[in-house]
Amino acid sequence: MLGAMPIVQQLKTAIGPLLPGLVLAALVLLSLVALRFALRKAGGAEKLKLPSALLGIYLFTSALVVLASLYWDQVSGTLHLLSLFVLGLAVILALAFLVFDYIFGHLRGVYSPKIIKDFLVIVVYVVTIFVLLGRHGVDLTSILTTSAVLTAIIGFALQDLLSNIISGLALQIERPFNIGDWVKFGDQEGQILEANWRSTKIETLHSDIVVVPNNIITKSALINMSVPTPVHRRKLTIGLRYEAAPNRVKASILAAVRGVPGVLEEPAPFVLLRSYDDFSISYRLHFFVDHLRAKERIEDRVYTRLWYQLKRDGLSIPFPIRDVNLREVKPEQEQAARERQLARVRDALAEVGFFSALNKDELRRLAQGIRVEFYAADEAVIREGKAGDSFFLLMEGEVEVRVGVEERSVARLGPGDHFGEMSLMTGAPRAATVVALSDTECYVVDKACFQDIIGQNQQLVEQVVEQLEERRRSLEYSPEEHTFNELANNEKKAHMGARIRRFFGL
After folding, report:
1. What's the whole-number mean pLDDT along residues 17-36?
2. pLDDT at residue 320 is higher than 50
3. Which of 117, 245, 290, 469 is most buried, taking the most CB atoms under 10 A from its CB?
4. Is 193 found in the same domain as 111?
5. E-assigned strands of 160-308?
């Protein structure tokens, strides 16, 4: 105690050594208030809670120092030293926030890794503790000797943890990846969620969180698939029969991948002949994506489109599979089945308006020349502005008709509907884009199929023109629904007939 000194004098004596710290605490507190006000809209002020709380603890500890000076002088020095430790940490955290978060981050947009900031805070704080201890008469030699022994013991016991911490520091300095990058190392692949002192967190394609120790990452070959660009090349291998010419196969594969959602147009996909195998020629399709999280779904779409495109192009995938079915089918049964299928196609064609001008024999010949094509959901059957000479009769599924650059939907067609009359009869470019909404089956009549029929019966030209004109007039009553139709507006019958004859070389 301070004996019989007046209480005021005792308080002055007790507060005197605390004044520099109290002034510093007041300045830091005002700075924190100013920073909180400056960041009231930008956010991030929640990081100021810790230094603010430490300042509150310092003020409370300072009050305890004053009371101890009055009533328990033996512990006042120790409390004063502890209060300075708290004040030092508060000041260092406030300065770190000011420099790293406000000046570099908020004002300049340069965000430093958290591990670097934490490392500097720890180093500066340790130095501050030693300075404070030295100023208060503590023998640092014995402390350093003891700390060296303790450091060796702790370092040996925590060598794995220290290895991870050092590796984490190296990763933050080298910066081989950033938060949000898609990386692969070892058997792990995913998106970086967090990188801290000890480990790195990765979210995989299965939405699992994998915590990988930093020393494992530094020992592995790391692939950052988001740098220098998120565009990433994917490859698929497919084998096709030897009978198919390679250039024809390459064109078919490229046609399949064109327009697949998720596949980039630039860089453009390409196909390479990979090898001559036992049962097939292997081709490798290369295409580019910029959404790695969806790469498996994109590959599924590409494989699906390949099946439909190859089937339309008459190309098949051979496999060394033995499928033996023994059965006896009489020739008349096979012929009857073919006739039933032919009658089904002929009856479907007879329902089309401008084919009604054909007699039964011509319809039969036309039915024999059609081809059946299948389209996958979301696949474009025809595209606006593209050349074409074929007509489509929808047998199964549903399609949507879209016009304009924005591909505005104007109609939906179902089984029994058709499109492509003008391209078949005149070779006019497609007037709309037609996209399959589900798996779709179409009967396709092209110029070559119709050429022999109209060449042997040129009177069909006038009858077809009549049917086309009648259809055009019927569609004029609902232009909003049928703007997709490929009939030329207000075209005279004579002009239409001349176009058809010229197109078919009659």
Report:
1. 82
2. yes
3. 117
4. no
5. 182-185, 188-195, 199-203, 209-213, 222-224, 232-240, 270-276, 281-289
* Non-local CB neighbours of 166 within 8 Å, separated by 6+ positions: 215
From the CB of residue 411, how many other CB atoms can be counted at a distance below 10 Å? Answer: 20
Q: Which residues pair with 224 in a beta bridge?
A: 183
- Tell me the C-alpha distance between 64 and 54, whole Å: 15
209 and 292 part of one domain: no
pLDDT tens across 443-491, in order? 998 888 888 787 777 667 777 777 676 666 555 434 334 444 444 444 4
User: b/e for 243-274, b at 16 or more Cβ within 10 A?
Assistant: ebeeeebbebbbebbbebebbbeeeebebeee
Query: At which residue do the structure tokens 């500066």 appear?
Result: 124
What's the alpha-carbon Rg for the chain, to the nearest Å?
40
Tell me if 57 is assigned to some domain: yes
Does residue 388 lie within any of the structural domains? yes
Whether residue 51 is found in the same domain as residue 128? yes
Q: What CA–CA distance (Å, rounded) separates 394 from 374?
A: 10
The number of folded domains in the chain is 4
pLDDT bucket at 146, cuts 50 / 70 / 90 = low
**240 exposed, middle or buried (CB, 10 Å; 0-12, 13-18, 19+)?**
buried
270 backbone dihedrals φ, ψ, rounded to 5°: -150, 160
Structural domain range at position 285: 232-312
At 193, which CATH number?
Answer: 2.30.30.60
267 to each of 231, 257, 260, 261, 461, how far by Cα in Å?
9, 13, 14, 15, 46
pTM over 0.70: no
| Any domain includes 168 | no
CB under 8 Å to 8, separation ≥6 — which residues? none
Would you call 428 helix, strand, or coil by DSSP? coil
Do 498 and 364 lie in a common domain? Answer: yes
Question: What is the distance between the alpha carbons of residues 410 and 406, in angstroms, rounded to a whole number?
Answer: 12
- Closest by CA to 200, choosing from 185, 208, 189, 212, is 212
Nearest to 254 by CA among 213, 285, 233: 285
Whether 249 is in a domain gets the answer yes
407 and 386, same domain (yes or no) = yes
Token digits of residue 225: 């698939």
One domain for residues 337 and 445: yes
Contacts for 6 with CB less than 8 Å, ≥ 6 apart? none
